[in-house]
Amino acid sequence: MKFPYGTADFHAIRCEGYYYADRTDRIRTLEDAGKQLLFLRPRRFGKTAWLTTLENYYDLARAAEFDELFGPLAIGQNPTARRNHYFVLRWDFSMVDASGNLAEIRQALHDHLNSRARAFFARYRNQLGDWPLTLQPENGVVALESTISAARASGHDLYLLIDEYDNFANELMHGRRADYDALVSGEGLLKTLFKAVKSLASGQGIDRVFITGVSPVVLADISSGYNVSKDLSLDARFVDLCGFSEGEIAAVLNQLGVEQQRNPAWSARMLETMRIWYNGYRFGYEPGPGLYNPTLALYFFEALATTGAPPREMLDSNLAMDRNRIDFVARQPHGEELIGAALDPEHPPVIASLAHRFGVEDLRRAPRDAPYLGSLLYFLGALTLRDQTPFGELVLGIPNLVIRKLYVEKFRDQLFPNYPERESLTQAAKALYAEGKLAPLVEVLEANHLRVFDNRDYRWSNELTVKTVFLIALFADIFYVMDSETAIERGHADLSLIVREEMRRFALLDHLFEFKYLSLQDLGDTAETLRAQSREALITQPKVAACLDAAEAQLARHRQGLEQAYGERLRLHTHAVVALGFERLLWRSCSGAPAVAG
Fold first, then answer.
1. Separation CA 62–CA 53 (nearest Å)
2. Which top-level group of life is the source organism from (predicted)?
3. Which of 233, 262, 404, 524 is the most exposed place for a label (fewest CB within 10 A)?
4. 52: which residues sit within 8 A by CB, 6+ positions away?
5. pLDDT > 70 in the chain, percent
6. pTM of the full predicted structure?
7. Angle at CA of residue 256, ends 251 and 261, nearest 5°
8. φ and ψ at 395, to 5 degrees?
9. In angstroms, what CA-CA distances link 445 with 245, 404, 430?
10. d(Cα 96, Cα 139) in Å, to the nearest integer?
């Protein structure tokens, strides 16, 4: 099998024999949905591939290729009357460089509009004849108007496709607010451009518009510049327009298994790996199965096809920059609180409904209970729809482990901001991974790091704070499948580190943690007296011993469930940990042999 990893061009995918997940049955439904449509999905979620599908379907210059491109697909079996009916003009705002000053960004947008107009006239020269293209280097709207005039004169309708409409504006929003405002408000260029599209789509030459992007923020800030599009992002008919279903993932893995002469257990194991790392996105209000991020899925498939094993790094580097989006949300009022709630399984983020239209000022001025920040993280793909409360409120959650990593990295930067601290943490973590030694890690964490999180506004329970610190300190996705509240047959473990199957050739142990917390009030002690006492003295205190006993009993039950699941492959060390306030950590570790205390 050939996989179009890094290729979003429908024409190339079909002509060069790449894998293609057919969604063309939705073309008919899209035609009935409206003439000016907006579709939002997270970055790298297949939006461009869908846009190029529409481009090839409607382009009158592709009429001779229709059977080759679409014949075997759903729409090829029952095409609409508008197939190969349009001139198609496509803009891609991800190509607009946002790194320069405001004048350079404006010029980059003008250059893109002019470039696309020149390509349009070259493509349709036979239909346009000698109609002249009018360009002004510093006014790309003139190129649009000239293009529309030529199309109308030829007697053909025009379909405008706008890909990543908010791409370069988002880059400015996250760090250059004044430049952002200058583009989207008043007579800003982006607002002016969309006003022109709105006017030209009102019987003036543009028949249809399809826009993709990540969030509604930029359109909201453009305001009246373009307030005529119909948003299909939550429409139940299109929730899986982009993304792969688990059935599609399983079918590919089975085919790869056949090609590589694997036994069926291999395909099942790869499916479980992908489910943990990449599944879990839900779009729309109705319950349904999760979707897989298509870029990550193709990244994984490509690794299997070329090396026979999953990728070493489960997060494609092309998506790593999404951390910046989480940082942006964290900087907004109540943003830190929301980011913290995302890691809290007991009190996840809850919003009344998803906000469809909100601008930057809404994010900055919103009260705590406003849905804007939660909605933005949903549109970014950093949160997804998990459930609904009995009152119909929306429960949000982190979709999968690869996104959880982005949150963990953000908190790790806070907890261990300096290189010497990170190096100490790395060495301490290695001692645990390979030898089961917890003492070096405890020494690092007790050096003020617990108190850093105690003073943050995360509204976490004390036990969750300790658990989160360990998750952040030990997160190593290259070697482990890591999760908090790990589902095990006999209940939920607080934190597990299960070695990835392809990494079991290394000297790595599996680990399972259970955490307890005793406050200074519970202990009748002060921070100073706790810090002064030895671990040997503290661990014999009745309340401490009782907590450790309870944690060990839970771990013993969880061990049985994991041993049944993994059999002899498992090299499990369990760790019962009790935090005394945010001052001291005590533990008992067990490898199946007598426990080691500290």
1. 12
2. Bacteria
3. 524
4. 8, 9, 10, 11
5. 95
6. 0.91
7. 125
8. -95, 125
9. 41, 21, 15
10. 15
